[in-house]
Amino acid sequence: MKSRFILLLGTTITCGLLVANDVHAVDEIRDSVVKIHTTSRAPDYSRPWTKNNPTKSSGSGVIIEVDSTRFGLDADIPLILTNAHVVRYASQIYVQPNQTTDRYQAEVVAISPGMDLAVLKLNDSEVLAENSSLALAEDLPSVKDAVNAYGFPLGGDDLSVTEGIVSRIEFAKFYFDATGVRIQVDAALNPGNSGGPAIADGVVVGLVFSGIRTADNIGYLIPATEIRVFLEDVEDGKYDGKPKLLDDFQSAENEALRDRVGLTKETAGIVVTRPHKDDEGYPLKRWDVLTHIGPHALDNQGMVRVREDLRLRFPHFIREVVVDGNIPIKILRHGESLELSLPVVYERERLLPQLKYDYPEYAIIGPLVTSTLSQEYARAALLSKRGITTLAYRENPMLSRFSDAPAFPGEELVIVTNRMFPHPIKKGYDSPTLNVIAQVNEIPVKNLAHFVELIRDSEGEFLEIEFAGHTETLVFNREELLTANESILESEGIRYQFSPRLRKIWNASTQ
After folding, report:
1. Is residue 182 included in any domain, yes or no?
2. In terms of residue numbers, what domain contains 281?
3. For residue 236, pLDDT beyond 90
4. In terms of domains, do 206 and 126 share one?
């Protein structure tokens, strides 16, 4: 006969009666966590005058203890921290407090797409006035520390709380060239948890932002220390990003390499393989060994010991030691120790810009749809092996200049994003989709705004558009091309010929 064991929790036996005790401790964290509902419209890169169909999604957020006046708002306005990707391309944002069905309209007051952080405020600031806010932890946790992840993942409507431990702390890549410290936890995290807090000892130690779906219980947090850096950065109303170095380094573990650069058993550092700049005045040279950043000594993998149980890659310390755009470093050059001042950058200059959740600019000229070639558009175009082969055959600069910096200030590549609209004016021409516009009437095109100006200010009977690489040149009757604009827009149901900034340029006086 099988025995049955029944465990009765929170009860007291009195005169043969079971009397329930109130053992449900109040969790003050719960009312500080909210659900975020968004309606988003992502860009359509090939049809940049429009957007993709609306999609609805949800995530999580947490009311944080922060002075709202830092954001130019009135005092005591409740602010909600969440992930940038939760509210990306959002046309509508609603916040649903815990244990309610009510939703309140909200807006973004600060965002960092790279670090995946955003701050929201409700349009009605009284809604969350009674909800407690949570403080951010002062320091990084330790491996094996217990954390509780709060949020609203898929699988239910109510708040979910999962428990885990800190598995790893490391310096890693985030998004859009951003880097920072991230915390790996083994708590169960699922879609919808994004933007929710991870709590230890009543404070926020991190914000859930990603996971590995093909692995068991591997999730990642943005630590409170990185959140503090973000909040300090956006106090002036814009996000500048973190200072960085663009030099290339390699580890100094190989014995032959160590001998080549003059490292001994008592010295350590990482080797400069390609300085960011090769001009004479730049502090770093090839084969220099970076040994210190500020007071922090590097090991042969470029790691710095933070405490007994934690090492982080040296770029983590750049922000800590930067002064007036430079950082103090120590190097070994031909065996001699030197102290130098090394300039940092805040944004990598790219010929192909990153849109970072912005919508692409566009200009429709007759049957041609043009836009600035962005990283996002190029990556989508290069997904096709057949497309890559075609671009290579044509010597399209989308391939050859993908990783380039601008050759001059303001340089952009202007691309035809879609097939030409049907119109008699394009008779006999192949569609120049993905082609980069090189010249208009033999004048080199600097960028999309310049292309619009060249068309606007063009004179003479013909307008010639020449593309980079091996492809045909388009020749139009100038008056016919400009006259065709209105009928093409009407036929295609397009409201505006240009995106807002370019609309002003087109309508500006040529004087």
Report:
1. yes
2. 248-343
3. no
4. yes
